Amino acid sequence: MADADEAADRPAGGDRRWRARLAPQLRPRLALLFAQLLGGVALGLLWAWWSPRSVAYVVQISAGHTALVPPESESQVAADGRFVVLSAIIGVAFGVAAWLTRRVRGPVTVVCLAAGAVLSSLVAAGVGHLVSSGSGSGAVNTVVTQKLALHGVSWLWVQAFCAVLVYVAIAGLLADPTLGRSAPPRGARDGAGRGDAPPAGAGETATSVG
User: Fold this and answer.
1) Is residue 77, in this structure, part of any structural domain at all?
2) 159 vs 11, 46, 89, 108, 168, CA distance in Å?
């Protein structure tokens, strides 16, 4: 009976040890992802406030079909450019923030950082479109203000590129195989500080022998 109880306790103990090892690694990465999503919301609001609005004319091209002229304006290109600038800034910021999380440095964090940055950009593009005023259609021969929209899909990768670039650049400058995840042992630091000085009394012994 006792053996059966011990056998039943082993899986529970193993699960607790597994959770104890996983939690310190998982919490910082989830916190980083949450911060990136909040950053995406802020980026979208700032993008909507900063970007110019594009104006187009509604013309009839066939029976029951209309089109906007011009289909793409300088204002839309300027809006995409502002999105790229904001994405680069927030990408650099999160790259540095991820590196400062010392104990989870490594390739897994790089993957999490890149995935979170892409999600953040998607959130930013969606928020900017939703909060902007305007319309994509209207009566024929009228002028409409178009809603803000991101026209270059590749711009969604800018934040991830900048974040990973900063992270990898810092890791390369550190030139430490452990990426500085843990400080050196106290004894090693003390020995380095003393310059491996000979033990006390060694000089006295040599003098007495001579």
Assistant:
1) yes
2) 43, 15, 8, 18, 14
Tell me if 186 is assigned to some domain: no
Task: Tell me what the mean pLDDT of segment 45-66 comes to.
Answer: 84
The pTM is what? 0.73
62 phi and psi angles, rounded to 5 deg: -165, 175
CA distance 138 to 133: 14
**Banded model confidence at residue 68, pLDDT cuts 50, 70, 90:** confident
How much is the pLDDT for 11? 53
- Between 193 and 132, the more confident residue is 132
Residues 125, 43 contacting (CB under 8 angstroms)? no
Q: Which amino acid is at 186?
A: R
For 206, the 3-state DSSP assignment is: helix
In a domain, residue 120? The reply is yes
